[in-house]
From TrEMBL:
InterPro entries: ACP-like_sf, PP-bd_ACP
Superkingdom of this protein's organism: Bacteria
Upper classification of the organism: Bacteria, Pseudomonadati, Pseudomonadota, Gammaproteobacteria, Enterobacterales
Ranges of residues in domain Carrier: 5-81
Pfam families named in the record: PP-binding
Species whose genome carries this gene: Rahnella contaminans
Protein name per Swiss-Prot or TrEMBL: Acyl carrier protein
Length: 82
């Protein structure tokens, strides 16, 4: 099981790279949609989740939870990692 801090670090790094942001620009409780992620960014998140943490994330997670925060996503990945 991946620790929350490890998950948060990797996901934050990916988002910062994708959106050309500084790490301090991300707030754990900010909804992901505020980052103006496009469909490719969400696909990258799903690939990262599978590759790094062994968690299959379906697009429905984001579609059904449009207000999901960075913290909630990382907690989900941490809770479901192998």
């Amino acid at each position: 099981m991946a620790q929350y801090d490890e998950v948060y670090e990797k996901v934050s790094e990916m988002l910062c790279d994708a959106k050309d942001l500084e790490p301090d620009a991300l707030a754990p409780d900010s909804p992901l949609h505020q980052l103006k992620l496009d469909s490719l960014d969400y696909v990258e998140l799903m690939v990262l989740a599978k590759k790094e943490f062994g968690v299959s994330v379906e697009a429905e997670l984001f579609v059904n939870n449009p207000q999901i925060s960075l913290r909630e996503l990382c907690q989900y990945l941490s809770d479901n990692s192998k």
